[in-house]
């Protein structure tokens, strides 16, 4: 383009091609990026209050087993995942409720309450947890996870707050 | 430093020669009709790019093909745009390639020394139609299903080999998961590979011979 203000025919074509090409590239290119990363920008499943059982059925000294299923929609597919745990009443006080996740902290097998052993036993690697979820024996690195948030509904049903993802 | 890198590369690749032969080669005085080849090429690249993007979500299985396209259209950001471009670009590509072919025919550009360019062009037109035919089945909706039923049935009426052709196209006597899978494979691998190879030779021949001039009255 040098010093003259007049654009040569060649340069005009070059500049026009560049601009139009750039526009087309941007119009298709930018949405394409969002198209690719879209699943990463989506929120996971929904958080929800999940009922686990009647408070009156939970007895002091005996862990009360519960389980529930959550459905996660991934694209065009629905995946159902099962969760479970034990509600443990340590005393008569209704506030003294501990809700454990029955997923073993070692390698995610499901632990089961054994009345005989008075412990949660994991079938996979012989892990043993106390009634309150502390590690008694075996390889788990930490105590059983706890559903911290729970509430009791008007008709006496315990609900836990389930966080997705 | 960039200049040194450029010079080093230029010495080994020859940007100038490439630029001259691809974008700055001498041309006879031509019209807008002579741009249709480039337009076809552009559409091919566009179809390739949007097609690659579509495979990120599309699933070539009878269970999921329809749902996955539904998801692209409604669930994914700009999915409607990517698929829309691919959908309309496909129609446009058949049209542009065909008009390009007509132009070459009417300006008699297929004559010596460009016969081979013309023959390869026929291959390009047929493979483009093949892309359209195989791509049409992939949404796995009613229209796709029955269009392919009819299309393969027509192929099946060929004498002697008809039944074999029908079975080869469908991957069996009926439309099935195999049909969808092999149409998908043909649509994204086999035919594009042939198409790209033919485009390479076509372009080489065009650069070698240059464009034909627009015919004059006494031609």
Characteristics of this structure?
heterodimer; A: Rieske Iron-sulfur Protein; 2 domains; four-stranded antiparallel β-sheet; three-stranded antiparallel β-sheet; 1 helix; 34% strand; elongated; B: 219 residues; mainly alpha; Cytochrome Bc1 Complex, Chain C; 72% helix; 0% strand; globular
Could you give a short description of this structure?
The complex is a heterodimer of chains A (165) and B (219). Chain A is 20% helix and 34% strand.
Lay out the secondary structure.
The complex is a heterodimer of chains A (165) and B (219).
Chain A: H1 9-41, E1 48-54, E2 64-74, E3 77-89, E4 97-101, E5 112-114, E6 119-121, E7 128-129, E8 135-137, E9 150-152, E10 157-162
Antiparallel strand pairs in A: 1-10, 2-3, 3-4, 5-6, 6-7, 7-8, 9-10
Chain B: H1 2-13, H2 15-23, H3 36-54, H4 65-74, H5 79-106, H6 115-137, H7 142-155, H8 162-170, H9 177-209
Number of domains of chain B: 1
What is the name of the CATH architecture of chain B? Up-down Bundle
Say which CATH homologous superfamily of the largest domain in chain A is assigned: Rieske [2Fe-2S] iron-sulphur domain
**Helix percent band of chain A:** 10-25%
What can you see in these coordinates?
The complex is a heterodimer of chains A (165) and B (219). Chain A has two domains: 1-42; 48-162, 3-layer Sandwich (Rieske Iron-sulfur Protein), CATH 2.102.10. Helix content of chain A is 20%, strand content 34%. Chain A is built from one helix and ten strands. Chain A has one helix at residues 9-41; strands at residues 48-54, 64-74, 77-89, 97-101, 112-114, 119-121, 128-129, 135-137, 150-152, 157-162. The longest helix of chain A has 33 residues, at 9-41. The N and C termini of chain A lie far apart (58 Å). Chain B is mainly α. Chain B has one domain (33-209): Cytochrome Bc1 Complex, Chain C (Up-down Bundle), CATH 1.20.810.10. Helices cover 72% and strands 0% of the residues of chain B. Chain B has nine helices and no strands. In chain B, helix 4 (65-74) crosses helix 5, helix 5 (79-106) packs antiparallel against helix 6 (115-137) and helix 6 packs across helix 7. Chain B is globular. The model of chain B has no long low-confidence stretch (mean pLDDT 94). At the A-B interface, helix 1 of A face helix 3, helix 4 and helix 5 of B.
């Amino acid at each position: 383009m040098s010093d003259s203000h007049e654009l040569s025919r060649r340069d005009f074509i070059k500049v026009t091609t560049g601009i139009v090409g750039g526009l087309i590239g941007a119009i298709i290119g930018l949405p394409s990026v969002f198209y690719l990363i879209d699943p990463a920008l989506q929120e996971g499943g929904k958080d929800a209050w999940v009922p686990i059982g009647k408070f009156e059925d939970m007895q002091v000294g005996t862990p009360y087993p519960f389980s529930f299923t959550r459905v996660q929609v991934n694209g065009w597919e629905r995946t159902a995942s099962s969760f479970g745990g034990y509600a443990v009443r340590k005393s008569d006080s209704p506030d003294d409720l501990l809700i454990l996740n029955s997923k073993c902290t070692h390698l995610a097998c499901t632990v089961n309450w054994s009345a005989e052993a008075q412990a949660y036993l994991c079938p996979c690697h012989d892990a043993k947890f106390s009634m309150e979820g502390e590690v008694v024996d075996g390889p788990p690195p930490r105590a059983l996870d706890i559903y911290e948030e729970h509430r009791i509904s008007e008709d006496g049903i315990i609900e836990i707050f389930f966080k997705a993802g | 430093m960039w200049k040194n890198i450029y010079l080093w590369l230029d010495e080994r690749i020859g940007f100038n020669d490439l630029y001259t032969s691809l974008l700055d080669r001498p041309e006879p005085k031509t019209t807008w009709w002579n741009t249709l080849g480039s337009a076809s090429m552009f559409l091919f690249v566009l179809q390739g790019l949007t097609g690659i993007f579509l495979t990120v979500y599309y699933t070539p299985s009878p269970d999921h093909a329809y749902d996955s396209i539904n998801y692209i259209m409604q669930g994914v950001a700009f999915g409607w745009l990517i698929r829309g471009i691919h959908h309309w670009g496909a129609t446009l590509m058949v049209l542009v390639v065909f008009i390009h072919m007509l132009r070459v025919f009417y300006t008699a550009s297929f004559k010596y020394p460009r016969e081979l360019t013309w023959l390869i062009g026929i291959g390009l037109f047929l493979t483009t139609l093949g892309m359209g035919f195989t791509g049409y089945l992939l949404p796995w909706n009613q229209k796709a299903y029955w269009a392919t039923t009819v299309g393969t049935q027509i192929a099946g009426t060929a004498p002697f080999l008809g039944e074999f052709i029908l079975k080869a196209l469908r991957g069996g006597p009926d439309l099935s998961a195999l049909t969808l899978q092999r149409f998908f494979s043909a649509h994204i691998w086999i035919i594009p590979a042939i198409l790209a190879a033919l485009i390479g030779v076509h372009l080489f021949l065009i650069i070698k011979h240059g464009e034909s001039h627009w015919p004059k009255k006494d031609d």
